[in-house]
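INPUT
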Amino acid sequence: MKCPYCGNAEQKVLDSRPAREGTAVRRRRECDHCQRRFTTFEEPEKPRVFVVKRDGTREDFNREKLMGSMLLACGKRPVAIQDLEHAVTSIERHIFDEHEQEISTSEIGELVTDELYRIDSIAYIRYSSVYRGFECPQQFAEIVRRMQKEERARTAESKPNGKASRKAQPIDV
Ligand SMILES: [Zn+2]
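OUTPUT
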């Protein structure tokens, strides 16, 4: 931080105390060069991440919108709403922890497909087809083939019938 009097970047902190009703820290500093004193305030930035769309426009990240797109993919599927809420929370947390300013819709799409893959295979395929812009049946066939391959690999390494099944109500969209 530069001294407001001489521009020197080194100073010592003489005193730190809570300010603005505890939402900030006030620091009294003394410039190492001119020895004059000044005050700084430190406060957390309001978390705000922009979503960069394919056409380059930006909009605020919106949790409800994310939930809406996932609900749509899960329409009529036996998916528990708590599982979706949990997935949305985990995606949201990832976005705010790892992305300081912006994230692209395709990065969000990857996070969503990862979550849906765990939750419901049909919802995963539906979402992927929209978000990757499938244009022909071969693309569906390809994704199903890949899932079957992964499924075989998974069942080979875990014991048979070990999958926990939880009854959930179909989501009506
Ligand atoms: Zn100074």
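end of record. DSSP finds five helices and six strands in the chain.
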